[in-house]
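Reproducibility note. Readers wishing to regenerate the assembly model reported in the main text can use the exact inputs given here. Chain order matters: entities are listed in the order in which they were concatenated for prediction.
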Amino acid sequence: MDLYDPMMHVSSWIRQVGNLGLDLLWRFIHIVVSLWHIVFGIFEAIESYAISLGFDERYNSIDIKKLRCLAVAVDIADARDVANVIELLQWLTTIGVKQVGLYDSQGLLKKSKDLVLATVPGSFLLEENGKKDFSPDEKRIAIEFISSSDNKEAVMKAANILLQRYLKSSPPENNKGENFFTESHLSEALRVVGENGHVPDLLLVYGPIRSHLGFPAWRLRYTEIVHMGSLKYMRYGSLLKAIHKFTGVRQNYGT
Amino acid sequence: MSFPIVLTFLALILVFFLVPGLFISRRLRVSFSLTNIVRFIKIATSKYDDEEERNEKGSTMGEKVKRERHKMPKHVAVILDGNRHWAEKRGLGTSDGHEAGAKRLIENAKDCFAMGTNTISLFAFSTENWERPEDEVNCLMALFETNFKSEMPYFQREKIKISVIGNRSKISESLLSLIGEVEEATKSYEGKHIIIAIDYSGRFDILQACKSLAKKAKDGLIEVEDINEKAMEKELMTKCSEFPNPDLLIRTSGEQRISNFFLWQSAYSELYFPNVLWPDFGEAEYLEALTWYQQRQRRFGRRV
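Running the prediction on these inputs yields the following structure tokens for the assembly.
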């Protein structure tokens, strides 16, 4: 009994020291990985500047026709700084991108729509002009403004449309719903509620999180998703590189 | 004064020899390697953080953020890409690639659970995969049957719940029957869950949820006004899981798209696209994914 308390103290101390050692080792691993990312980031920055200055001939002519529809998802913190978004759109126009879906979850860019359209030369609202064709030499860019209300909320509204049709069908008790709940029906219902459903070939994500930030799920089936980092530190070379890499992608669509 | 210092040194020596020793003695079937030691370290530190969380009261934001960095993903989803390419690189047949992929699947599941993950979702066969050559499709279906049978003892021993999600209309009766047996035998297990997506499509998942809600509304079980996002999420196929939305979504082979997997559920999942083929994605690669995951900020569309 006399030895019990000191032994308990010792084992508790050993446990604490052991846990501290394990914790320090895990943090050390984090430091190593962080250093690797820093070094990698430096190399990426150098490469990006080299591309911007035209030192890499591969990026001087990009087959932009493969990129029919581009989407850009912006983190809400970055979306508050519209100037960066405008600069990005100007770069995209220079590269020759014809159609862009601009997304942020809270619709901040939707609210700045007028400013963006007034400031980006050659820009126009996609839904107003629809599928009007312009000559490839014209530096025009159609912009669609998207927010999270075009995602799950839109799917729910569309689902309600299909539901109403289903409930009104006769006789509903014999109908299991196969004729009402198909992909084409839901796509059509989404158009009715204003979710135009332009499916992007490539989604560029600007922000600290490498996720698609709640971009409309129905559109994302085979979209290439590239994380570009924060919009504050965007680089023209990185943008060119991402688009160039996309043009080399071969999808088999699961087959 | 020297006694505490001596004790500390002894403790450190014990830890660095005892830890690997314990590992060897308890896990004789696992090879002794640095990566396994690191895995054990991570388990220990995450448990340490869990204890801290349970004991914490009124901690500051700084401490909470610090603990956030040590959080492990509760639900990891994986798109198993690269089996065919792996086989081509080695001059092997496609079926060899899929067999290697199946073997890797079980090994990686063990690693995931060892790291504290609760749910693992595996995109094993997409709706589009039916368009592949008949031989390959038959090989994959046969692999599913073989592995369900051979791994059943492991699932029961480790108390892993198995759920299979997807459109079952094209699956053979024998495989359906086996799936039913495995799900029934493991349905009561908690804490570890493997969701296997066979003939799964994200769009189909959304549609079947809509259909399910429509049927409930028709039967008077819910009001039309109550049909919202939450109601939708309860009808998606991932409703079988305690954590339906993946924290981390991994797609191997370097392709950077989600290919119709968990379209609804992955809205805020961290996407990780390592340039390694699935049969080569081992514990070291998974450890890197976890480290990478922990380094990211996670904000669900709101400002922190």
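We highlight two features of this model. The longest strand of chain B covers residues 119-126. Chain B touches chain A through 65 residues (CB under 8 Å).
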